[in-house]
Structures are given as structure tokens and as C-alpha cells.
Amino acid sequence: MKKLCLLLVLVGLVSSSMVFALVSGDPPVPGQLPFLLTNAGQGPGGKMARLLIWQSKAILETDFDYNSEPLRDNPNDLVARDYKMLFVIIGSSAKGLGASGITIEEEIARLNKMIVEAKKLELFIIAAHIEGKDRRGNPGSADEQSIDAIAPFADYLIVMKEGNLDGKFTKIAKEKNIPLTIIDNTIDFMQVIKLMFPKE
């Protein structure tokens, strides 16, 4: 909660021009609407991303839906609208898992099912890791399991630099031939969104 409040303050201080945002690596891909925004691992990143997308003003709030646990209770979550993209924010939280009443094993099983269904529906899958080293862990940890369940199957990766210090995402991108955009800070995620959805 403290981190989300701090993000709210930072967003309020950022100018609409985002002139200082640092985005490197592959150029952001063109976005497609509407899309479903969700998270992998029950971390707070999904809600952060939703806030940043709103604050970017690149698209309307009605252009996307947020669902923290698609396919957990409703098998039709991915076809609720004519979605073009599945936008997954990766990052696990013991608090989030506890609040959802599930284990990381149950979460990974849901994520595996979600990826299979998204591929069947030919949704463009974006995987984003925007909280840096706070959402990385030792091999086999909840964070790493969440990354492994989503990132290798993505069509596009967005990663905060501090979350890629070991080169894990770079390796996945090279092995799977996935475009990878690197951001310096979580707040720079807004600039990526603006580049994905440029104003005409």
C-alpha cells in the first residue's frame, strides 16, 4: 500500500510530456484495443499498471478491462469482449496470494491455463515486469515461477532495468525472438504506453 501511495505521488509530479522518461531496447510495439490487463503472481503491479495507463491519457478507461484472476472462476473471462491483447504484469506477493486464498502452485496452474487459452484465441500477449528487483527472487521462488509461466510465451516484453540485472529477460527475449523494451523506472511505463498508443 505504501508503494502504491508513493506511486500516486510520483504520478502527480510527472509532467505530461514525460521528457525525462528513459526507454531503451526494442521500440514499443503498436498497441491493439481493447485489451485485458491482469497480473501474474498476485502482486500489486497490476493495479499500478492500471493507474499508470489511466494517467498516461493515451487511451480511454473503456478501452481495456482489468481482471486480477482471469479463468479462476469464469471460463469466459478471455472472451468477455473482443480482446486483441492480453497484458500481463508479472510479480508475486505473499500478501496478494493470501488475500486471494490460493497457493503459488494454484496460481501457476491458472497462469498456464490462461496462456493456453490466449494462444488459442490468438491474443497478442504482452508481459511486463515493472517493479524491478523487488519482484525478483531465488530460483523456484514465487516471483521466478510467475516469470517462467508468462515471459517465454509473450509476444512482447517490457522490463524495468533493475529487474533484469541478471539478464534473465534478455536471455528469454533472445531465445524466443521476443522484442524487449527496457525502462529505467516504473513511472517510465507510461511513456511506453504513450508510444504504443500514439495520438493521431
Structure report:
The chain has 200 residues and is α/β, with parallel strands linked by helices. It has one domain: Rossmann fold, CATH 3.40.50. Helix content is 37%, strand content 16%. It is built from seven helices and seven strands; from the N terminus they run H-E-E-H-E-E-H-H-E-H-E-H-E-H. Strands 1-7-6-5-4-2-3 form a seven-stranded mixed sheet, with helices on both faces. Helix 6 links the parallel strand 6 and strand 7. Helix 2 packs across helix 7 and helix 4 runs parallel beside helix 5. It starts with a helix and ends with a helix. About 6% of the residues have low confidence.
**What is the level-2 CATH architecture name?**
3-Layer(aba) Sandwich
> How far is it from the N-terminal to the C-terminal residue, by CA?
36 Å
Low-confidence regions: 8-19
Nearest-angstrom radius of gyration? 16 Å
Task: Give the tally of β-strands.
Answer: 7
Shape: globular
Treating each run of at least 4 consecutive H or I residues as one helix, how many helices?
7
Strand order of the largest sheet: 1-7-6-5-4-2-3
What proportion of the residues is helical, as a percent range?
A: 25-40%
What structural class do the secondary elements suggest? alpha/beta
